[in-house]
Structures are given as structure tokens and as C-alpha cells.
Design goal:
mainly beta, OB fold (Dihydrolipoamide Acetyltransferase, E2P), 3 domains, 6-stranded antiparallel beta sheet, 3-stranded antiparallel beta sheet, 1 helix, 11 strands, rod-shaped
């Protein structure tokens, strides 16, 4: 019974990530006074859909060693710790947070999806087939459109519209004649 108990206690060990080799997707784990060799870490997906996220130094992990030998171990990630605490306390919030503060979250209760980038962050969506947004859109900030714009419906502008440097609201026309004649071009 003693050997079975010892093998079981050696099969599952808590530790912290001490070193990471990104090229081989392996890490070394400090387990009490012992340092493991470089071991592979388990990931969520590695088939036709792949997720890459390397472990962080000091991340708390479990080393699974089926035969009790750490040399054959696998690193199971995902334990909250004092250094890497749970980012929320809601059972309806699903969140992905990055080291620089960028965050993606979805709340199944409020049906709200939010992406937040740190100051200076940028976002690019490339979709050669096009992008369709169904629903009202609010843009807070300057907008630059490089290409033609088609509008089906009314465009409402509360200040002015400029076309070729000519103000729609304040332009002057030449050759104004009373009656049915047409005015000249705007200035």
C-alpha cells in the first residue's frame, strides 16, 4: 500500500513555472525543492483550431506524472494564486485578459460584448469579403474613410458638410439670376 500511496502522491504535484522555452513550448517547474526538466504544457486546442498562450513565470501549475516520474510529466495550467488572482466574481462573465491590460469579455446576463485595449492600442479587422454590422452604430472620435461611401437613407449632419473644400452651409454661388435660370458653380 505504501508504494501505491507514494506513486499517487508523485503523480500529481503542485508547483510554479520557473522557466519557459517558447521555441519548444516547454517549461520548467519548481516543485518544492526540486526543479523539473523542460516539460510540455497542456493547451486547450491543438488541432485545426489552435490556441497559443505561453505560461507566465511564477504561474501556479499542476505537474501530472502518470508513472510518478517527473521526467515524463505534463504541465496542467490554470490555478489562480496570490500573484495571478481571479479577475472577476461573476458566474455570467467570461473574460480573457492579457498582460498589457487588454481585455475581451462577454456577459451572458446582460448580453454585452466588450473589447478594451490599453492606451495607444490599435485594432485591425481584415475581411476581404466585407463586414456587415446589424444595429445602430456610435463612433466617438474622428473617422477616416478611404474609399467611396454609399448611403441608403438620410445623412443628417448637425454642423456642415465640406465637398472639395466647399461648405454646403456657407458656400456662395456665381451668376445668380432671379427666375428660372440656374446659378453658377459654388465658390
Amino acid at each position: 500500500m505504501g508504494n501505491a500511496s507514494s506513486a499517487l502522491s508523485n503523480a500529481i504535484r503542485l508547483g510554479t513555472v520557473a522557466e519557459v522555452n517558447l521555441a519548444t513550448a516547454r517549461c520548467r517547474v519548481q516543485v518544492r525543492e526540486m526543479m523539473t526538466d523542460y516539460l510540455p504544457w497542456l493547451v486547450t486546442l491543438t488541432g485545426t483550431t489552435i490556441i497559443w498562450s505561453a505560461p507566465a513565470i511564477s504561474e501556479q501549475v499542476v505537474v501530472l506524472s502518470p508513472a510518478g516520474d517527473l521526467a515524463d510529466g505534463l504541465v496542467l495550467r490554470g490555478l489562480y494564486s496570490d500573484q495571478f488572482t481571479a479577475p472577476a466574481t461573476s458566474d455570467t462573465l467570461h473574460m480573457l485578459r492579457f498582460a498589457d491590460g487588454a481585455q475581451l469579455q462577454y456577459d451572458t446576463d446582460t448580453h454585452a460584448l466588450q473589447a478594451t485595449l490599453p492606451s495607444g492600442g490599435t485594432a485591425t479587422i481584415t475581411a476581404d469579403g466585407g463586414i456587415t454590422l446589424n444595429g445602430p452604430l456610435t463612433v466617438n472620435g474622428t473617422t477616416q474613410i478611404n474609399g467611396d461611401v454609399g448611403i441608403t437613407g438620410t445623412a443628417t449632419v448637425d454642423i456642415d458638410v465640406l465637398g472639395g473644400g466647399i461648405s454646403l452651409k456657407h458656400h456662395k454661388t456665381t451668376g445668380v439670376t432671379a427666375g428660372s435660370a440656374l446659378s453658377g458653380v459654388p465658390q
